[in-house]
Structure formats: C-alpha cells, structure tokens
Amino acid sequence: MDALLICTCTGYLCPGVTSYVAEQLGLRNDVFLQDLVGLGCGAAIPCLRAAQAVLALQPTAVVACVAVEVCSAAFYLDDDPGVLVSACLFGDGAAATIWRGTPGPCGLRCDSFTTLHQPENRDRIRFEMKDGKLRNLLDVAVPKLAAAAVESLLADERKRAGVRSITRMIAHVGGRDVLDAIEKSCHGFDLTASREILRECGNVSSPSVLFALERALRDGSPDEEGDWWLTSFGAGFSAHGCRVGI
C-alpha cells in the first residue's frame, strides 16, 4: 500500500482515523495518509477523486479508499421532524476499495469526476452542535434538491464530447423519497441496488454509494456497451458523479 485515504463525517480525531488504521494494518511509515472530513453523505466520490490525483502523480502506486461512518455516535432525539427521520434512517457502515494506475484483476476503471456545490442550500442538511452533541438538520426539501442536482450533473456528463453511453446509475442511498425523486427526474434508470441497500442497511452516509455498487456488481459489471455512473450527495449542499467502466 502506498496511500490510504479515509473519509468520514461522524467523528473528529486528531490525528485522523488514517493514523490508527495504518498502525493496525502495519503499513510502511512512508505511506501517504489523508483524512477527508466534513463532506457528509457525498464523501466517497470526492475520496475516489483524491485517489485519482495520487495515481496521476504516481501511476505505480496502490491506493486504498475507505468511507466509514458511525452514525450511532451522532444519535440525537428531539421533536423536530428532520431529527426523527434521521434517527430512523441512518445506520453504521464502512466500505473500502483498492485502486491502481494500471488495470487490476477486476478490470474496472473510475474516472470523469464531476461536482456541483450549492452553498445557498448549505443549511438544508448539516450537523450542528447542541447540548454538546451533534444534531442532524434534515430539511423536507432535500429529496427535491438531491434529484435536481443529480439531474444537472447527469445532463452535463452526457453532453461531453466523445463519451460513452451511460447504461446504469448507482446512487447514494439517501432515503425512499430521495430515490423516488431521482428516478422521476432521471428517466430510464432503475435504482434497485440502492433500494435494496436502504432496506437492509439504512442510509449509512458516505459508504452508501459503494454498498450499492457492490450490490449491483453481483448482477454483472459494465461492458463495451457503456459505463455505469455513480452519484452521491449531501452536506454543502453538494453532489458528485463519476463513471465506472472497463
């Protein structure tokens, strides 16, 4: 391993989580460690984008990307509808991927990263500190915001010259209403893998899109006919996309 990148938003440590994971894994003491915090549910794709940057400078490197959230560490209850939905929706989870600059055993590539920021909607979904605890703010407008952002990113990706067709969408498990809104705004895509993960695991925040990707890969993988498109969204308000193909 030459680099270890970990994203999380459900806890803050200094030194970061990478320090502890690198120690437990027995990694070399010159491995590059990078912690990405504060990106919320959308963090996995920016973490993959950071891995791409590492590999651009060091194509022979082996890079591990880990998304981990312990949402139960931010469990908070009051009478606010958004807080109650959060308590019912979020769960704990972690996902890891390994990347190289040259084709690996599975033959998948990850590229064409895109991002959309909407700071005017920052307070629609975020953590705040209350009574010494993290309290999740979740606005009723989030499903509509997420669907519009994903639709915009997808439209821009399809407009790029010379790109392959997109045959499948893999979306962050934001919640039932979020997935309904995305399917309505992005016609022709079936988000069954995301719905299955939501039903079995809940919204595990940043690892969710990787959980859904793993589930989708059980049924096959991208082929010569086109790429899969991953999308995640969350705090910022921000949304992200990337292609997975062969």
Helix content: 25-40%
Could you tell me the number of beta strands?
10
The CATH topology of the largest domain is Peroxisomal Thiolase, Chain A, domain 1
Residue windows where pLDDT falls under 50 for at least 5 positions: none
Determine Rg (CA atoms, Å).
Answer: 18 Å
Count of helix runs: 7
Can you walk through the features of this model?
The protein has 246 residues and is an alpha/beta fold. It folds into two domains: 3-100, Peroxisomal Thiolase, Chain A, domain 1, CATH 3.40.47; 109-245, Thiolase/Chalcone synthase (Peroxisomal Thiolase, Chain A, domain 1, 3-Layer(aba) Sandwich). It contains seven helices and ten strands. The strands form three sheets. A four-stranded mixed β-sheet has the order 2-1-3-4, with helices on both faces. A four-stranded mixed β-sheet has the order 5-10-9-8, sandwiched between helices. The protein has a two-stranded antiparallel ribbon with strand order 6-7. Strand 6 (125-130) and strand 7 (133-138) form a beta hairpin. The radius of gyration is 18 Å and the shape is globular.
